[in-house]
# Entry
Amino acid sequence: MPHSWSGFKSRVQKWIINNIPTNKRVLDVGPGAGVYGELLSGHGYQVDAVEIYSPYIDKFSLREKYDNVYVGDIRTFDISDYDFIILGDVLEHLTVEDATKLVDYITNSRIECLVAVPYEMEQGEWEGNVYETHLQEDLTEDVMEERYPELDLLCGNNDYGYYIYQNNKMIWPTLCIDNFFVNANAVVEYSKKLKYKYGDGTWPGQRTKSTHILDSNFFKITTKKIIAALYPNDIEKNSCLEWNATQYFQKIKPSEYPEKGFIHQDISAEFTSIVYLTSEKNNGTCLYKLKNAVKDNSYEEEQKKNYLNRNKKRSKKFKEVLTKNQESYEKILEFKSMKNRMILFDASQFHGVNNYGSENKERLTLISFFHSVRRVDGQPLKFHANECIKY
Ligand SMILES: [Fe+2]
# Structure
């Protein structure tokens, strides 16, 4: 039926508002009477809809409830430009094969989604609309878990369930490889020839320009070594993978940063790699988890001000926000900064530096932010955490 069950809708609305930023492009698939368009209206989202049964568009005034309304079949509709997909009462209308393909495409593309399904509900066509027929009448919480393991149950009861896929979960594994460069000293010697500059206050110390600008060969070789750590089999088939990254040498004078670093995520990247290039062992990187659901962003302004004025004493406010930042997280892993150790972690993982080292020794690292990795043959790239969850 074009009307979905109204239970839990305000909870679902709250979840969307709290988890999906308003600059994300939202697609409601099979809007029917337009319930999700109504739920999100006035909250600042751009919401499009794709409806397979065109008579519903006028019948339910869908053009008034959505920014753009398309007539189309979700099995062939291009969803790649969307950030959040709503599949409210949709999966049960698809065969297991089509629905699995769709959910796999969404999660492998790291598009976030909300799925709502009725459990064990038989239904034929409705007022002449054959698309209303249920092709998965056997859905239950257990069946959902078995068929769509990437989805997590948000809420529901014995008759109906809401599921979500969020891409802020750890997708990339955490790796650590020692003796990473064949000749780390040559890399250190190369780093000494480069120019360094202080940044805009959002990170400590000084960085070079991205190495792809300075020496594209160095960039290609070193980023390929890092990708080889993630995809050792694929990297052998020449040019099977391509990636987009920025990479810098970074120097930090401990005397300029006598306190711990702020715990943060690298929001512009998919994953981050750091190679430690000095022999000091105690200025590595720690990974953290949030102690409660609220992420701490309150430090950013103070960090900027104080990092830009690095010769002045830290302000009282700076110390306060640093303490609050440290107290919001629990340490879950610590990497010592052994020279020539490469670490790699999902950029959505909270991380920070516990200690920038001893007074007189600069901390040198080669830091690479990977923004995307793709297969050139158009096949979807498999993500480690997504793959493991299937078995
Ligand atoms: Fe970082």
Notes: The first strand starts at residue 25 and ends at 29. The chain has two domains: 9-165, 175-375. The mean pLDDT is 88.
